[in-house]
From TrEMBL, chains A, B:
Keyword Transferase part of the UniProt annotation: yes
Organism: Geodermatophilus nigrescens
Highest taxon listed in the record's lineage: Bacteria
Protein name: Crotonobetainyl-CoA:carnitine CoA-transferase CaiB
Assigned keywords, A-Z: Transferase
GO molecular function, one term: CoA-transferase activity
InterPro entries in UniProt: CoA-transferase_III_domain, CoA-Trfase_fam_III, CoA-Trfase_III_dom3_sf, CoA-Trfase_III_dom_1_sf
Gene3D superfamilies: Crotonobetainyl-coa:carnitine coa-transferase, domain 1, formyl-coa transferase, domain 3
Length: 412, 412
């Protein structure tokens, strides 16, 4: 466990908000040295000012102390070092140039065109360091998109088609509270970055990696051939149940909800036995899949009637005992506390640099376990500029006087 | 564009169904040589027998010809070579051992414990080739999970909490038609695989990479601090609109639906001008964010009333013209035909090995654009065993007689 996969790789992190910082969080967990560059004039990453904050008295809507950190930053800032740098100042760009010369990877999620205006785009970085992999995450791609080009998660969800894969025909589109548009793009960005690092390690040449939120989420939607399925009469919006896989879907129990997925004969017969109707296993309506699909409504009603007055735990145990896959529907609060997920470190307790581990709060881990390497997010989020002097001194070799001058000039 | 990022890397692909094959599809698009190992006795990957099929007459529920391929395989089999191999036969395992010796990566998505029973688990592969990265994708992790351990996508969605981030309080959980459980795990598996490849290229040692569907999706849910938000009074299930960001959400127009995301003063004032109510910009209920949140229902009603009798295109154009981010809600059929997404190759036309590009069908691409490398999925899916002789002959150096004997023995 002594060495992490990306040990020795330096990432210059120019990202803010969610999509970009989640990409660099994963790179940090995998062992890269992530140097987060933040604007001293605006208070750094906007996520630092997202309510709620962790205070000495626990969670609060407002800061009690200037050092209180937002939960967003506590989650996304782990395993990163914070350096302040004003990129609109020519001296700031010179410091950034030195960072890029020392880097293996640059990640940015400015709006399309901004890095060119700031004079820090891929062409500039490549001149400084031909080996560097320069990754851009944007709403519609590095060349920009239609309209205002504002790529908020809900806009991306709407355009990608994903909202129309849930709910039933005629119902409104379904907006997810989980920002899947913001969260899927960084996964592809990390894949592209690492593939380009493999290539750069081999060839000595980096390149520009360009991932769009719209393209990422639409590509995920296009993993399923929704229009081919509809063309042969398999509608994709069917509400809580899926008649073509009956018995299949979400059912209400007395104290909650559960999912049952029993499309095969073996599973379906187990489900019938679980609801105390073994007599129906040989019934021509339910014995084979074609019959179950034709009689899906009746079958789903039988299950719903049986489950309605029982506890979720009882219903799930009965289905499982008869070999039919079933599970309770959990809310996020319960889900992130799953003992197996905790044991595997896929979700971890959240730590504050001052208060230590805060037992009540949970945060995303790196959901990748490796036999010979650690992928734990084990260093708490940094204060704004906490590592400025260390990085400029140790990594870039700047003397104390030069750092002092840059501080006085407002560059840092 | 002459060299792909993973050029020269060999992936032995033991996966079936969706999660595993999507991981190796991405590795193939990034330039790895993906050798898909399929069981000759069962007709290979089960996806080969997923209706619908592409026939000479177009899409059909049933095959017309033995060579007709399923849409699932046409999508997931691209940029892969197919080798048949019976892994229950000791001679089959010997051939697999030779493949593993030639490989950089092995990917499998058997149920937990199966590779050990077959005698082809990570320990076995490591003995043969210490450099190999061996990636497992499973429902609950390589050590198995609770209950039946059947990890169907809907079961994973239920357990992960994601179903309770959509809809409104008291409403049933929301099942997504897009199998996000199946699709997110392979993204983390590719990230873990590539990170381990970077490490193996550096150290000469591979390792086991273990990704669970439940851990992957729960980790994604834990990117947002849902319980911290609820603790300070920001409920996460709010239906189509989000009062705390008002005006924000999904609205009905005459001929469809649209998303409006206008939480800032500038966006919100633009939205009021767009609905021809510039008089309300200075109204104390709507001028500042606190007022808009307190009067969210009234604000959303104003917008809903104005949009209801207008076309989606008109409504979106009005919002956009006034600087308020808005977009139509598209269904998957329309979304995968977005011109920008097509131009960037994030979704591509689907090709059949016999019929060529089938203009009507679309399939996922690799949504990662690289300045100096190609990531196109440009080779159509293989027939079952199409590359058996070529791979055994060229890559493993088997003579014709040996291949003939293995064929006669039913090993291939």
């Amino acid at each position: 466990m002594s060495e992490r996969p990306l040990q020795g790789k330096v990432v210059v992190d120019l990202t803010t908000a969610l999509a970009g910082p989640y990409a660099t969080l994963l790179l940090g967990g995998l062992g890269a040295r992530v140097i987060k560059v933040e604007n001293p004039d605006t208070g750094g990453d906007a996520s630092r000012n997202n309510s709620p904050y962790l205070t000495a008295d626990g969670l609060g809507v407002r800061r009690q102390d200037a050092d209180d950190m937002s939960v967003s930053m506590l989650v996304r800032g782990r395993n990163k070092e914070s350096v302040t740098l004003n990129l609109k100042d020519p001296q700031g760009r010179e410091v950034l140039a030195d960072l890029v010369r020392a880097a293996d990877v640059v990640v940015e999620n400015y709006s399309a065109g901004v890095t060119a205006r700031l004079g820090i785009d891929h062409e500039w970085a490549r001149e400084l360091n031909p080996r560097v992999v320069y990754t851009s995450i944007s709403g519609f791609g590095a060349q920009g998109g239609p309209g205002s080009g504002k790529a908020m998660d809900t806009i991306i969800q709407a355009l990608s088609g994903v909202m129309m894969t849930a709910g039933a025909p005629g119902e409104p589109p379904v907006r997810f509270g989980l920002p899947v548009g913001d969260l899927v793009a960084p996964l592809y960005a990390v894949i592209g970055t690492l593939a380009a690092v493999v290539q750069a390690d081999r060839t000595g040449r980096g390149q520009h990696v360009d991932v769009s939120m719209l393209g990422a989420l639409t590509s995920l939607v296009a993993c399923e051939p929704f229009d081919a399925l509809e063309e042969i009469g398999l509608p994709t919006r069917t509400g809580p149940t899926v008649p073509r896989l009956a018995p299949f879907g979400i059912f209400a129990a007395r104290d909650g909800w559960l999912a049952l997925c029993a499309p095969t004969n073996s599973f379906a017969h187990g489900a019938l036995r679980a609801i105390e109707r073994p007599d129906l296993v040989g019934d021509p309506r339910f014995a084979e899949r074609d019959g179950r699909v034709a009689n899906a409504a009746a079958l789903h009603d039988l299950i719903a009637d049986w489950a309605r007055d029982r506890d979720v735990a009882t219903v799930c145990a009965a289905f499982t005992a008869h070999g039919a896959p079933a599970a309770e529907v959990r809310d996020p609060r319960a889900a992130v506390r799953d003992p197996l997920v905790a044991q595997r470190g896929e979700v971890v307790p959240l730590a504050d640099p001052r208060f230590g581990t805060v037992a009540e709060l949970r945060a995303t881990g790196v959901p990748i376990r490796m036999s010979d390497s650690d992928t734990t997010l084990d260093r708490p989020a940094p204060r704004l500029g906490q590592h400025t002097e260390a990085v400029l001194g140790e990594l870039l070799g700047y003397g104390e006087d030069r750092i002092e001058d840059l501080l006085k000039a407002g560059v840092l």
